[in-house]
């Protein structure tokens, strides 16, 4: 038991030290750009300017002592309030000022369209007050082949984190580490299929939103790489800002909704696919989006992995908005049901389903594939009769919730 705890603590130390290793021991002023995104006309990028100590010589790379020193360097980081930076992209320059924690936002319009021969483009950053740092940020700009934009939650949608259980979430994030953290079976293959599209060459944008802090950015980035999940901009809602004066996370209500609205405005010529989970506020947020932008959402996938009677009302409200907007909603416990639905609606290639099943088998053995209950014709009347809630209540708390698709007649006609 003691050995297991010691190993877990050692992993925690290594994970917490990893973000500082990425700067190769630099001290002084450092710019940390996060992956940005944009269109052919404008780009956005967020980052942070901070001060940190350099490496102490003599410590062996990978040793516990070196990791502890790197954690100390990370804890001693201090955001540089009101740092002044210049950002340059495609012949356009902008001056930005960091906030009190050192975070900054760049919004630049391009003088000329970016090159079409690559997805990722570079934006140059330089701190001009105080002097001392330069960096290059990466921006994802969709090609003309992209057919839709996908926005996905991370927590309990891509990976098991137990957002509703904060202790469990922190244990998985900081102790188990990216190698041990469990991705939902088949999610990587499904997201790759959405990125590739039905033609296999669409390279549709994949954007991730989360309620987590920016300090988890590098850990999640490595998690995506390890599991083969398509890399894309990760948009957080807040920095947790743990300080003696602010020992608890700062609440930033409504920011997730605002981020999705911003994406809809930026990619105004593209339809969207929204993916989330039933545990937090995704159904309420997506319901608002569908209501505000009828016709813009091709499909909504909600990962539904536990019986939560108190959430049925919010899910039912989302289903009604989806039907009214002529879209489709799938409540699914597994990625296979999502992939199967996406094939039926011409969103991904048919062969992607077998890839999802193969990945599931590698992760958890022979999959127990459950059928999908469909509420289609006269969906609005069926919802008013309580058919969705009745379906969700089937089985007991030990069973996996059923897969249910709610679809408007208009959407059903378009998919055939």
Strand content: 15-25%
| Count of extended strands | 17
Poorly predicted tracts of residues: 240-251
Give the distance, in angstroms, between the N- and C-terminal Cα atoms: 58 Å
Mean pLDDT: 78
Helix count from the secondary structure assignment: 13
Largest sheet: 9 strands, mixed
Provide the helix percentage: 25-40%
Radius of gyration: 22 Å
Could you say which structural class the secondary elements and strand pairing correspond to?
A: alpha/beta
- Taken in chain order, the helices and strands follow as HEEEHEEEEEEEHHEHEHEHEHEHHEHHEH
Specify the overall morphology. Answer: globular
List the defining traits of the structure above.
alpha/beta; 9-stranded mixed beta sheet; 416 residues; 8-stranded mixed beta sheet
Can you offer a commentary on this structure?
- With 416 residues, the chain is of the alpha/beta class.
- Helices cover 35% and strands 24% of the residues.
- The protein contains 13 helices and 17 strands.
- It has helices at residues 2-21, 64-75, 166-180, 187-196, 217-227, 255-266, 282-292, 312-324, 335-344, 352-364, 379-384, 387-392, 409-414, and strands spanning 28-33, 36-38, 42-52, 78-79, 84-89, 92-97, 103-109, 120-129, 131-140, 149-153, 206-210, 234-236, 272-277, 297-303, 328-332, 372-375, 403-407.
- The strands form 2 sheets. Strands 1, 2, 3, 4, 5, 6, 7, 8 and 9 form a 9-stranded mixed beta sheet that branches. An 8-stranded mixed beta sheet has the order 12-11-10-13-14-15-17-16, with helices on both faces.
- Helix 1 (2-21) crosses helix 2, helix 4 (187-196) packs parallel to helix 9 (335-344) and helix 9 (335-344) runs antiparallel to helix 10 (352-364).
